[in-house]
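okkk here we go again. third time trying to get the 2-oxoglutaric acid bound version out, last two times i messed up the smiles copy paste (missing a bracket lol). double checked this time i swear
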Amino acid sequence: MPIIPTKSYGVLQQNQCCSTLDEAAEQVKNLGYAIIDAGYTADELQSLSKEFNRTRTNYVNTYGESKLKSLNEFHTIRSPLTHGGAAFLKLALNANLLSIVKELIAGKFILNQQNGVINPPKEGYNQGAWHRDLPYQHFVSSQPLAINALFCVDDFTFENGATFVLPSSHKYEVFPSVSYIQRNAIQVAAKAGSFILLDCMVFHAGGFNNTKEERRAVNHVYTIPFFKQQINIPKNIAHFEKLSAEAKDLLGLNYIEPASVADYLDSRNSKDTDPT
Ligand SMILES: O=C(O)CCC(=O)C(=O)O
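finally!!
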């Protein structure tokens, strides 16, 4: 192992970092990715794995295999928290995850989307091409506006198509050349039960799954409330009244656009923040 110097000179400013979550937040800010443990027991992971498969079967039965295939949607379960078991809602509210998202996104943020992602054996899938999770965007932001948390239902390995990232690519606007990608992409292996955190502007792609088993994940995108949700979560979630105030806020209940000026003015009554 090389001995890495820790002393410095000519340095006026240095980040101070203490907890594992702080370290991960620093890495997401600088490199655009990091791994954290979600804190589940082996039994909890097993029941999540079963819930994933049950939800997928219901989803495919509801929307139809041939339709999903024709739309290149067969390897995705859209918004499992609104039609799967409570486990998916719990995942989106994971305390370790939210504490780091709070460090990364200044101010309020909401859950923009949650998707089950299946990387099938020996064939491509819709996440296997390079993209940003704020697609079609080429700006650079000094602060993260959106964070992706990809929960590993299975181990992510080099063999089963662990996610590739281009480190620090959230800091440049233009998608780099193929030769740059080949020289600089890295593959992020992670244990089942981890979240792979990405600044949503970092370029990433699912790898090729060269095993015989599917590699399953649940992706979450948290954004500042200015972005509209991929699917309207407040309209689709049952029993909202049972949720905590924090959960309602996170799921976007407080950020539905007013239908009229009158509704907007009514909404201002209950707010103590500046108009936006
Ligand atoms: O499946 C993966 O490894 C990547 C998933 C992904 O790119 C996404 O959900 O945006």
